[in-house]
Amino acid sequence: MSETAEATESAANAESDDAPRTNEASADSPVISVRNLWKVFGPKGARMRLPHDEQVKGLSQTELREKTGCTAAVRDVSFDVHKSEVFVVMGLSGSGKSTLVRCLTRLIEPTAGSLDFNGQDVLSMDKDTLRELRRHRASMVFQNFGLLPHRTVLDNVAYGLEIQGVGKAERRERAAEMVTKVGLDGLGERRPGQLSGGQQQRVGLARALAVDPEVLLFDEPFSALDPLIRRDMQEEVIRLHREEGRTMVFITHDLSEALRLGDRIALMRDGEVVQLGTPEEIVANPADDYVRDFVRDVPREQVISVRRAMRKAEKTEAGKGTELAPDTLVADAIEAVARSGESARVVENGRTIGVVDDARLLSVVAGLDEDAGGGRGEDGEAKEVAAV
Amino acid sequence: MSTTTLPQPSGEKEKEKAAPAEPATTGVSGARALLARPAVMAFGLVVVVLIVGALALDGNWPGALNWSSGIKDGLDWLSNWLTDNRATSPLFLYFLLHISNWSEGGVDYVFTFLNNLGWLGVTALATAVSWYVSGAGLKVRSLRIALLTLCTFGVFGVLGVWEYAMSTLALMVVAVAVSAVIGVLLGLIAGLSETGNRVLRPVFDTMQVMPAFAYLLPLVLIFGIGSPAALVSTVIYAAPPMARLTALGLRGADPAALEASRSLGSDPWQRLWTARLPLARKEMLLGLNQTIMMALSMVVMASVIGAGGLGDKVYQALSKDNVGLALIPGSCIVLIAIWLDRVTAAAGDQLDTSPGSARTGGDAGAIALEKLGGWFAWGVFVVFAVVGTLFGPVGERSWPIQWTVSISSPLTKGIESFTHSISDGIPVIGGTDVWASHFTSWVLNPMRDAMQASPWWAVLLLVAVLAWMAGSWRAGLTGVLSLAVLGALGLWDKSMDTLSQVIVSVLCTLVVGVVIGILAARSRWVMRLIRPILDVMQTMPQFVYLVPVVALVGVGRPAAILAAAVYALPAVIRITAQGLRTVDPAAMEASRSLGSTGWQQLRQVQLPLARPSLMLACNQGVVLVLAMVVIGGLVGGGALGYDVVYGLQKSDLGVGLSAGIAIVCLGLMLDRLTQSAGTGKRGGTK
């Protein structure tokens, strides 16, 4: 109860400009909490009934359309986004991920379910409160940039502040700061049409950052960019996250992007979350054949850590070999093991918790580790997270 | 009718020829398949019935279905009621009279203002404003436009039409302002609301095919002869393009930008002001350009209902059959048209590019100069306005008389001798007049007689079958109903007369236009040559076309047909060339890589792929030709157009309005038929 009260209070604070991010105390509670969210497109009657109809929940997308004339873009999705994490939603086109992220600020109105932002119920917000949420607490970066071609870069970046009603001098000053921050120094007076795609998306990023939001939402922001520029932009996001620790929800269809950026990944298919977990969990323990297929070509040694690859230490091995931290990547462990020529110890808090040798490491690279003992238990755990 | 006999044979021939060249095409199964189609069979049958009927039966519209006397009584009663109650009815007192007074007052006010500025003030003001809106500064373009303005106004003075030009301009200013405001409002409704769009779209569509000539008369009866009627008819004519393009711009805005704006928490007003309207700016400016050009066209034509100004001079000269007198005000109107078109086009381009490029350079000097230019233009405006209203004009009110040159009498003489020598003075080949009379007796009369002799029910059937072939029963229904209205109005024969003129004119315009269009599409050189000519032709008001035509072929139906064909020509050429040019380059490359000759490429790839554009060209041609053919009533075109003119001159609502309705019905039928042919699965013409 006290949490709710606090959240309401923070919402009240958020309306004054200078204190939009006051929720330090409740760091453990999720920033965004989504439960059983549905978004159904179709005729109104059928659309409203669908989420409560137990019979149709098992149907596939095509069966559903034939039976009810509806399309469930988001089906019964639940997850939490914690403070300062990068939460990635990944799926192929048509999996409902873009709809999902729009539901978070009700750019698309969800059909059913519940949605809390810092403990505050988003779905029951009236227009003004919702507008305040969009103005100060969550801002979005779009795939097609969505810049206004008739404004300069600086005025585009300042656009969010203008909508909030910030005075011209102040908003231009803050916009100039943001333009510098995303590396567009000296381009402030250009028009979007005169910039490259990567530069345009930097403007989009600066515009979202300028309002100093609690959460940044990214809707496939780099899909329209060249591979090299995409990589640059990903590093830019990683850098920003490291510097500011801002909470981010990132939508992508690119698995390597998801693995590179995500603290946790929700993998979507046909509107449902099929697996939710850390990149390592998803690569090491695919929940089903679909996910397994998806992650088949991932270089596993780059994602999986030695904690997952190790076996129990035998008594003889207790004191010798290189020490490795449990979250060392297998790729790094291979280097250590190859260098020393013997198995390495995994040490946590000064205690040896396991051993990796060349056989264990190679089985990770070969993709054979999935059947090994460690995996099974955590498979269940991952599912549990997804079902929360 | 002869439009419609074309497709069958040419379609067959094309298929047969295409078959050996392109064996892979799936649809080729020869002429037999084409004949097996029920619609084609029915078409053939109807044509046979039509011919037999025309020879053997009585083609007149049956008296039982002719309600013209009832309609005429009703209209006469309405006309009397309007005249009697103009001073007493609350409809007039509280609504129409206000519109009338406001528009009268507005036009008078602007006219007085221009008059108070004096000729020096008006010229300086117009030059400064043109220079400023076309980019200011010392750029070549803006200086050129300033010079053009200066020359335009100088010509008004030198040719002694200053006063008339001012009264035309005064009406223009008010009409454009009102049209733009109403257009933007309607455009906002259609652009922002789905229901608004559904309601307004058909209205705009109908307005576009409706010849303006048709609704002059009711306005005259309501507002009387004079500037209010002229103003209202101009607004009705000129506001739709503004509304249409505003709605188009609002609907076509980048959805990502709008969503971004929404995601930042903008409320609907903020979104409208900061995103929607600025994103639609380009279309809105184009709309303004079109509105201005159409307003000019209508302001000039409204001289028929007492608008005064340059148009009136042309009208009077034409009714005296004096081309020399009409030529001077006519060319001044063309000058105004070119001037306005260039200025608005330059303003549009300037809005698009200049601020960006000026700021990119970060050149403080350029920005300062631009600002200075703006202040200068406004300064000139304010100074002249204040001085003009307080102390009277700087210099004299009207252009000094000693500076005018009277060229009308030598001009008249020159033109007379010229037309005389080419009308029938050329040995062997005759002359324009001779040709025109041959044309009338060998083409026009037989065609009209054939159409009037055809049984009315067979014509209805033919229209229905044509629509069926085009694949749209809706269009067929509209067409048949429209034709039925013509009969019921008792105007069947006159409508057939007008229709025969339209068909002949459309054929001429399509043949010439498509050929030139093909040439222009295939050769850059031709395009560059004809582009400026097309530009000028497209900006010229309809009315002006009558002047040279009458000089060439004299008064009569050939004049109307020639004017209509020439008037529709630029649009047909433009659309054809555009359609051929934008054909998928990959398909063109593929055909070239298969070794096809230029001719094969044109026939097998370009023309089939550009088919939608060709259909559009046909549709536009028909609509434009009809609008012009009825105006031809002013120069002896006869038929429906003459009825409208007669109705206007005698204030006879019965004759004039039924003819107006008949014109609208003809327009609807022709438009729906050609339009459905464009969108249907298999088209009718070409």
Automatic annotation (TrEMBL), chain B:
Residue ranges occupied by any ABC transmembrane type-1 domain in the UniProt entry: 165-344, 495-674
Keywords on record: Cell membrane, Membrane, Transmembrane, Transmembrane helix, Transport
Pfam family, one: BPD_transp_1
Membrane topology: Multi-pass membrane protein
GO cellular component, as recorded: ATP-binding cassette (ABC) transporter complex
Region of interest (Disordered), residue spans: 1-24
Main subcellular location: membrane
Entry's Gene Ontology molecular function annotations: amine transmembrane transporter activity; carnitine transmembrane transporter activity
Protein family membership: Belongs to the binding-protein-dependent transport system permease family.
Protein's recorded name: ABC transporter permease subunit
Organism: Streptomyces reniochalinae
